[in-house]
Each structure stands twice: as C-alpha cells, then as structure tokens.
Amino acid sequence: MPRAASPQSVDSQIACVVQQSSPGTVFTPDAFALLGSRAAIDKALQRLVARGMLRRLSRGLYDKPRNDELLGLLWPSVDAVVQALAGKDKLRTQPAGVYAANMLGLSEQVPAKVVLLTDGISRTVKAGPMQISFKRTTPRQMAAAGRLSGLLIQAFKSLGAPHMTPARIERLRQQLPAAQRAQVLEDIALAPAWMRPFLREVARQEP
Q1: pLDDT (tens digit per residue) in 184-200
Q2: For residue 152, which of 118, 110, 200 has the smallest C-alpha distance?
Q3: 97 shares its domain with 130
Q4: Residue-range definition of the domain harbouring residue 44
Q5: What is the per-residue burial (b if ≥16 Cβ within 10 Å, else e) of 136-163?
Q6: pTM to 2 decimals?
C-alpha cells in the first residue's frame, strides 16, 4: 500500500505554493485540498502563520502579506478576497451597489461594506477591516454576471437616474473599449426600462 503523505510533506508543498505566489494572494484551505487531509492542511496553515509567511484574515481565510515602502503592511484587495471565496464554493458573483459604481470610476466613495450578488448562499465575510456581503439573488439578476453590462446595470441602480449625467456617460464612453461597449446592447433587455437609454448611449459607436 502507498504510504500516506506525512504532515511535513503537506507543510512543504503548501509552503512552496505560498512562496511562488504573489504578495496579496488570498487562500482558503480548500485551495490545497489535493495535498492532504483537512486537518493536516489546517495545521500547515497555522505553522505558516506562525512563521509569518501567511496572515490569518478570518476563519478559513489567509493572505500572503504585502508591504509598501511608505504605507507598510497592506490588506489584500477586495478582488483577491472575492476570487478566493468564489473559487472555493464555485460561485458566480456580480458586484453591486457602491462597489460596482466605484469599479467603473462613477463614484469615489470607497464602501465600508462590499456587496456582491451571487447564485450561492447569502453570507457575510470579514477580511481584516473589510466586510464582504454575498447576497443570493434571482437568476435574472445574475444573467449578465461577469460581463460589462452586469456591472453597468448594478452601478446605475446604485446611482439612480437623476445622477446619470452626460458627463458620467461620456466618461464611461471614453474609458471603456468600444468592443465591450457594443456588447452591452446584447443584455439591454435585462435592465429596467428607465436605464436602457443610458445603456444605449454608453454603447453608441462614433458616427
């Protein structure tokens, strides 16, 4: 019979993955599921935290610390945390609210609570100072997830029609590639009626 992998070999393999990863990368124990038992993986992660190779953000969530010469130790990006959590549960997510508007440069407000729509379970995760809320929603709301149209729809919902100024629309037209803007029209039926003229204007090609 083949010998089971020793805890030390699990430690070494996980340490190797962490060493080869970029600072700011976020991990969950499930990312190492092929390397050993859950108990062995948890022990290995605890040892890497003790050695300073990893930082524990919350239960079952770790990152490889990154340092800035001026700012010192930094927290991971929201995208890195979401990618790790979504990959763990194989979730689809769609940024919503102020977070969606911020991603598009339509708002300078940095949300204290990041909201993402999902087809998975609803839950809230703490990651250092960040609070990330996954909200289960309808298939219609998720139909454009992962596409520019989905991000625009959620950002416009957050801002509301009175704040969809010509200046904001023009900024989007200047910043977003023409090919991506053109694809927005494919999902326009998913948007509320009040929003469709704004989406058409974003997607409009130069004469």
Answers
A1: 999 999 999 999 999 99
A2: 200
A3: yes
A4: 7-74
A5: ebeeebbebbebbbbbbbbbbbbbeeee
A6: 0.78
